[in-house]
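hey can u run this one w/ zinc ion bound, need the structure tokens asap thx
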Amino acid sequence: MPAIYIVDVTNRDGVQTAKLGLSKLEKTMINLYLNDMGVCQSEFGFPTTRHESLYLQANLELAEMGVLQPIRLAGWIRAMAEDVQTTFRLVPKLKHINLSISTSQQMIVGKFQGRKSKQDILKMMTEGVTAAFELGAESVGVNAEDASRTDMDFLVKFGQAARERGANRYRYCDTLGYDTPFTIYESAKVLAKEVGIPIEVHCHNDLGMAVANSIAGARGAIDGGQDCYINTTINGVGERAGNADLVAVALAATKAKNFGEQYKLGMPLNLSKAWQTARFASYAFKVPIPMNQPGVGANAFAHASGIHADGVLKDPENYELFDFTELGRGDPELVETGRQIISGEYSGVAGFRHIMGNMAVTFDDPAQAEQILELVRYANVEAQKPLVEEELLFIAKYPDIAKKLLTLTPLA
Ligand SMILES: [Zn+2]
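ok here u go:
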């Protein structure tokens, strides 16, 4: 029986969000959290973008070291042979790649403005797939951007052409959040049957249906006989109204009525990391988690009205579908209310030793402390906000990797 897998795209689609961004260290931390959660793949960035090169290389090194395992790290580029060549020149060890191109009539007329025909789109995509395999890719996915506004005949043709070149997955992008659960179910099912490779569903939330569409799309792909890879972002960050939220998708896939018994996850998710992961992304993006966010919102397990409070106290299942501890919630949090010593880009060694000492980190000698502190200063320059414990611990544990993440050399 085909199964559902999660591909998180926070570090690619999430960081494309207007007004938001992440430092390279924060992107690395996100990959670590996703790996801890049991997410199958992180779309970890843009291999043709020069300021990503060292970050991408450093994360592939973490994978080689066994730190970022078993998660797959996949890059995302435009579907053209030239971008594939740039990719493997800048990030030679990349193994997994997604090639994206618009397929809809709207984009052919409105975006390409007559410069590209459907035939040109097929040619660019297939040349890209071939080039990627020639240059060492182990797996290649093709993305039909604006698939939900593309006629089905062309979507099938696009997928079949990709499969003939050896593509491993087909991403159906509901780029504008235009689908309903009913339409995406049908589309995913037809594509799974006609194209015959695993389907990815990439859903946006413009009409508030990203999670529902993801679940329906997954069901469609599986009913059509193929695995389904659902694209998510942490806290649903993404362009305009955002993407399908990771935790909500995980909850819907496992807790919703009559779904999880029949349509199963191919890799178990460690939901007990959900709370920590959502909190870190909220800190890193500087975007608060809405209080009514599924699973991780402040009100997700809060009860005030008499009937509900009485009911949940008698038996939590009266008014809660699942337990908060499953998501890693429930531990008390220590918040410093007195003197605080905080890391910053102008920090000195005494304060730094104090901060690290509170986390039981000691240094072999003053030189080592000074070296880690210097990396922490640079991390603060990039983040422009105090680092959290996990980031400080990461820098202390992997100073060489941190140095790569913090190295930006423009116009080299
Ligand atoms: Zn998107």
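The mean pLDDT is 95. anyway lmk if its weird
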